[in-house]
């Protein structure tokens, strides 16, 4: 399966996916909406094609999304992976990739959509936090959930310590889910997500 990964910054999830050497998955390209996204360096060093589509050069979300889509589709992806891609996507764009675009969100959805998830989980007194991989739909952070990982929130946690604990799980969970997709084990049908075979 051909995979295109979209990032905006550090790119540690992208890095975990590349390092996982997922059977049946070929990382065709890494795209960013900022030329200074740190993860682009790792991708280039690993011989992966990179592209930058800078949102500031477009006067609307629709024109940016159209340019992004044109770049992505040059690589004929079976799967588009959002990995810390910090742009809200238009309905047309999400529809184009329906069933073939995943996102990772650093909370146990449906709790804490949007930003500052760890701070909000601590403020709410949650005893568990975590991350969610979901199919992308038009509504931000609301697509069908594929998999989640939970971690404890410890009494002395701050945003940084909790984020680090969750991120370690993100780096494990995202490659695992992409592995399911690459092996044709992931099915989204009638509003439900199924993983065929043993979950491993
Ligand atoms: C991750 O926590 C991801 O869940 C969120 O943004 C962060 C991106 O980190 N959407 P990285 O760029 O993958 O290091």
Structural class: alpha/beta
CATH architecture: 3-Layer(aba) Sandwich
Unreliable stretches, pLDDT < 50, 5 or more residues? Answer: none
Distance between the termini: 19 Å
Order of helices and strands: EHEHEHEHEHEEHEE
Helix residue percentage: 25-40%
Number of domains: 1
Present as ligands are: 5-O-phosphono-beta-D-ribofuranosylamine
* Strand element count: 9
Function: Catalyzes the transfer of a formyl group from 10-formyltetrahydrofolate to 5-phospho-ribosyl-glycinamide (GAR), producing 5-phospho-ribosyl-N-formylglycinamide (FGAR) and tetrahydrofolate.
Binding site for (6R)-10-formyltetrahydrofolate: 61, 86-89, 103
Keywords: Purine biosynthesis, Transferase
Pathway: Purine metabolism; IMP biosynthesis via de novo pathway; N(2)-formyl-N(1)-(5-phospho-D-ribosyl)glycinamide from N(1)-(5-phospho-D-ribosyl)glycinamide (10-formyl THF route): step 1/1
């Amino acid at each position: 399966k051909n995979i295109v990964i979209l990032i905006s910054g550090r790119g540690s999830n992208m890095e975990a996916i590349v390092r996982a050497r997922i059977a049946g998955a070929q990382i065709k390209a890494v795209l960013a909406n900022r030329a200074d996204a740190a993860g682009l360096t790792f991708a280039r060093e690993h011989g992966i094609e990179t592209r930058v589509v800078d949102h500031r050069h477009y006067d609307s979300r629709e024109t940016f999304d159209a340019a992004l889509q044109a770049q992505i589709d040059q690589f004929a992806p079976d799967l588009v992976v959002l990995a810390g891609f910090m742009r809200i996507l238009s309905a047309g764009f999400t529809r184009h990739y329906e069933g073939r675009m995943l996102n990772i969100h650093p909370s146990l959805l449906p709790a804490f959509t949007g930003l500052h998830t760890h701070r909000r989980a601590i403020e709410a007194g949650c005893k568990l936090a975590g991350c969610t991989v979901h199919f992308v739909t038009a509504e931000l952070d609301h697509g069908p959930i594929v998999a989640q990982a939970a971690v404890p929130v410890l009494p002395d946690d701050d945003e940084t310590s909790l984020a680090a604990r969750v991120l370690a799980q993100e780096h494990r969970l995202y490659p695992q889910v992409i592995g399911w997709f690459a092996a044709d084990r992931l099915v989204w049908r009638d509003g439900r997500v199924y993983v065929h075979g043993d979950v491993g």
